[in-house]
């Protein structure tokens, strides 16, 4: 029986499971929806048991298309910054505070007073702020677990293990590869923190009872996972310094493989460690949201055949849905620029696409100025990646080959992590 490698992606809208073989070929996939988190102002949380039930359901559906007895390794990714507190047996002692939960305002101020600027732990939605908030309000807890950690822990019957990617925004120092000394000034007890492994490192056999319940081989190994964003990057196949991935969604998110870490907290630039390489990037407020401020999706689909990607409009736009920019220009008052407007809608649409591409090009230039390598190629993901004319515009303006990712699912990237082990 050929071995299978399974990736589990616990996302905001559902859980996805993907099984691949030794060649990285997908042998089966399954998805189960998740109900939206509970929201009360800045508080956004979810019952962790919902994640677990969706995970076992997804594995059950996956077992309808592949033989789970052939599974050799399993890795889990989760939304970056989502965490909970657990007791000694792994039972939740708190709700799961979601990645965008921003209730811990006082804790964030305390962190800002002691954490170095390059730390990923800054902000009201930081996992460290959430941890401090929960510790002050929870009894019986002995450990913190990220979403991916907890799911992997239940599969393994072993808790207290995390990975370098999930731990980054909890304050872990990826350069020194340890928890920093300034934690002591915040009174964060070291015993609640997980041991940190390189993503893809096997840390336990599957729990025998869990193997029987799920129909998975008792020899299957559970490996340290990653975040959903890093998993989606891995799925694209980008792995050489200078390889970049642009997500053309509501906003513009850029990441590039680098040989050294880059941290520019004032611009939202940070780096995940990928073995001996680094995944560095930032996010702009430009993107699809800026297009939707002027045209509907149907309008854009109708106008796309009218675009002339090799004939620049000559207009200098900086499209934003509203004032304020994060990167490559860090200015909360920065004003959108989308004038003068051509009389023809399709020319205006092309000028907006050129403007967003200009932002993308400037962002990569800024990353290079901060120490990132020169671009080799850009792989595109997200809804905008489907527009061939826009990709031609991007290739012309950015000046490197632009392609569309064959695979973009985080569950596939996590399955590759289970197959390949720690990145090198």
Q: Characteristics of this structure?
A:
424 residues, alpha/beta, Nucleotidyltransferase, domain 5, 2 domains, 6-stranded mixed sheet, globular
How many distinct domains? 2
Strand content: 15-25%
> What is the CATH superfamily classification of the largest domain?
ATPase, nucleotide binding domain
- Overall SS class: alpha/beta
The global form is: globular
Q: Look at the structure and give the mean pLDDT.
A: 96
CATH topology of the largest domain: Nucleotidyltransferase, domain 5
Query: Which CATH C-level class of the largest domain is it?
Result: Alpha Beta
Low-confidence stretches: none
CATH architecture of the largest domain: 2-Layer Sandwich
Backbone CA Rg = 22 Å
Largest sheet: 6 strands, mixed
Strand order of the largest sheet: 3-2-1-6-13-12
Total count of strands: 19
N→C terminal distance: 29 Å
Helix count equals 13
The portion of residues assigned to helices is 25-40%
């Amino acid at each position: 029986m050929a071995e299978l490698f399974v990736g589990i992606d616990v996302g905001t809208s559902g859980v996805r499971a993907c099984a691949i073989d030794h060649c990285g070929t997908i042998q089966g996939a399954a998805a189960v929806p998740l109900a939206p988190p509970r929201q009360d102002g800045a508080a956004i949380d979810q019952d962790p048991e919902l994640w677990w039930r969706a995970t076992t359901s997804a594995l059950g559906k996956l077992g309808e298309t592949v033989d789970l007895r052939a599974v050799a390794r399993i890795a889990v990714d989760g939304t970056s910054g989502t965490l909970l507190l657990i007791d000694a047996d792994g039972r939740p002692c708190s709700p799961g505070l979601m990645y965008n939960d921003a209730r811990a305002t006082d804790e964030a101020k305390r962190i800002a007073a002691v954490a170095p600027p390059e730390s990923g732990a800054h902000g009201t939605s930081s996992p460290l702020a959430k941890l401090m908030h929960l510790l002050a309000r929870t009894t019986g807890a002995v450990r913190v677990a990220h979403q991916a950690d907890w799911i992997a822990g239940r599969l393994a019957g072993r808790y207290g293990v995390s990975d370098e990617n999930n731990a980054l925004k909890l304050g872990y120092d990826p350069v020194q590869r340890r928890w920093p000394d300034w934690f002591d000034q915040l009174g964060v007890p070291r015993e609640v923190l997980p041991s940190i492994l390189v993503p893809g490192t096997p840390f336990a056999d599957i729990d025998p009872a869990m193997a029987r319940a799920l129909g998975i081989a008792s020899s299957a190994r559970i490996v340290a996972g990653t975040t959903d964003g890093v998993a989606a990057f891995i799925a694209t196949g980008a792995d050489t310094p200078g390889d970049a991935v642009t997500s053309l969604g509501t906003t513009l998110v850029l990441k590039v493989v680098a040989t050294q870490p880059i941290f520019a907290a004032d611009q939202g630039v940070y780096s995940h460690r990928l073995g001996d390489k680094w995944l560095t990037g930032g996010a702009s407020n430009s993107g699809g949201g800026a297009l939707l401020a002027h045209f509907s999706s149907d309008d854009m689909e109708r106008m796309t055949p009218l675009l002339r990607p090799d004939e620049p409009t000559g207009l200098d736009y900086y499209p934003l849905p509203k004032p304020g920019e994060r990167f490559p220009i860090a200015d909360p008052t920065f004003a959108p620029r989308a004038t003068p407007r051509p009389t023809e809608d399709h020319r205006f649409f092309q000028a907006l696409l050129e403007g967003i591409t200009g932002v993308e090009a400037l962002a990569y230039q800024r990353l290079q100025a901060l120490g990132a390598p020169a671009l080799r190629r850009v792989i595109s993901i997200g809804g905008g990646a489907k527009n061939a004319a826009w990709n031609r515009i991007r290739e012309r303006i950015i000046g490197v080959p632009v392609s569309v990712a064959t695979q973009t699912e985080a569950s596939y990237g996590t399955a590759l992590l289970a197959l390949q082990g720690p990145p090198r």
